[in-house]
Amino acid sequence: MNHISNPQESIEKAIQFLETNGIPFERHDHAAVFTVDEVSELVSIEKGIRTKNLFVRDKKGRQHVLIVVPHDKSVDLMELGVQTGYGRVSFGSPERLMKHLGVEPGSVSLMGVINDPSCHVHVVIDIDIWNASFVRCHPLVNTATVVLDNPGMKRLFEITGHEPLVIEVPSR
Fold first, then answer.
1. How far is Cα 15 from Cα 34, in angstroms, rounded to an integer?
2. What per-residue confidence (pLDDT) applies to 30?
3. Which of 60, 118, 123, 140 is the most buried (most CB within 10 A)?
4. Distances from the Cα of 151 to the Cαs of 22, 99, 155, in angstroms?
5. Helix (H) or strand (E) segment spanning residue 91
């Protein structure tokens, strides 16, 4: 994988991807945020549903999954593993995250799929995100947020070849 480690180059890659593919977006730059709580405190964007993004792997480390849910949902990973057939899942390491999605912890978002041309990472997306009119996500870095409309989000997955599993992600 040819991932970019420079944050400025990463955001430029993400923005170029959106522009090249005609995906409309709004860009909002802000201080670095690492958690959903920090986003709530530091980022004032009205438009779009806020997301929480989890990068997990199966027990053997052969399958990797990006889970995208509303920011306030507490995911039941055990039930999710049963429901999706992945079995027992646990969080992927920062090294696996960089290898497969080309991002660092705190920057995980649905836009990471642009760094996964082989579609190694499976995407599980909550029905509330899939049906939202607008979605907020990091453009490969945690110092900015982009707002995508629903058709734009779905086009991103289509262009990258990822076919999200859209379900009501189980919560605790």
1. 20
2. 84
3. 140
4. 11, 28, 6
5. strand 89-91
The DSSP letter of residue 74 is -
> Is pLDDT of 49 > 90?
yes
CA–CA distance, 18 with 3 (Å, rounded to integer) = 17
What average pLDDT is seen over the chain? 91
Q: What 3-state DSSP class applies to 6?
A: coil
- Residues present in the chain in total: 172
Fold of 7-167: YbaK protein (3.90.960)
Q: 145, exposed or middle or buried, with CB in 10 Å at 0-12, 13-18, 19+?
A: buried
Sequence letter at residue 29: D
DSSP 35: S
CA distance to 6, 50, 56, 92, per residue, from 104 (Å): 11, 19, 14, 11
**2 band by pLDDT with thresholds 50, 70 and 90:** very low
Q: Is the pLDDT of residue 73 over 60?
A: yes
Place of tokens 């994988």: 1
Domain ranges in the chain are 7-167
Instruction: Copy the structure tokens of residue 63.
Output: 């399958």
Q: Retrieve residue 88's tokens.
A: 């027992």
